[in-house]
Amino acid sequence: MQIKKASPVEQSVSDPELSAYQRALRDRLLAAPVVPAPAPWRPVFEYAYGVPVGGLLGIGFASHPDSGHDLVMVVSRDGHGLFDAVTGEKIARDRDPEHSTPDEAADLTCPGLGPIADSRVHIAGLFGGGLHTTTQDGWTLEAVAPAWPNDRVLLSADGGLPHSGPHGERWWHIFHSNYSELRAFGFSPSGETIAVATSSDVSLWTRRPAQSSNGGVAQH
Question: Which residues contact 200 (CB under 8 A, 6 or more apart)?
């Protein structure tokens, strides 16, 4: 029996060493703790890591035809759900949709539900697609992995990496996916909502003020 010897290339392919600049950038990202998103952003859900959604596959945005609120459609292995991105309320649920995953459509869409039942929603996540990573007034979102495979989501008002200013002033580490796989992240088309979805949950932030139970703006 002959054993084929590996060529030098097959034996060892070492990664190139990081430059001093790259090491400094990585170390700065590693040292930045998770912090709350700055004003005017506020979390939509009361839980630190949003709401649990087992087997989450992807998310997409729509607009409520009556209130104008951003809506977030969540696609999972257990069906489809629709959340109001201002109040956090789950306003529709379909546990057994006819077309359950976005890969069934060439444009990665799923049929809407509830108040958007007559439309289709583009879904970003496990099967591809993407969400907005910038807003017209200068906010930026990006995912980095200085300690791969754990992704960190950064919100910034300085145009994105390399973030030369201090953490917490013009850029903020708002989410650390150190327990589940990052599925999708981005702004709504309106620029009023941030969504971060992992394989196990979805977190939302909004720029709209909280509403009181009687429909008015809550006083803080």
Answer: 52, 53, 54, 56, 179, 180
Classify residue 134 by its DSSP letter: B
Provide the whole-model pTM. Answer: 0.88
Three-state secondary structure readout of 160-197:
CCCCCCCECCCEEEEEEECCCCEEEEEECCCCCEEEEE
β-partners of residue 75 are 58, 80
Category of 23 on φ-ψ map: left (φ > 0), alpha (ψ -120 to 50) or beta? alpha
Kindly report, residue by residue over 96-118, the tens digit of the pLDDT: 998 889 999 999 999 999 999 99
Amino acid at 217: V
pLDDT in tens, 140-199: 999 999 999 999 999 999 999 999 899 999 999 999 999 999 999 999 999 999 999 999
CB atoms closer than 10 angstroms to residue 158 = 14
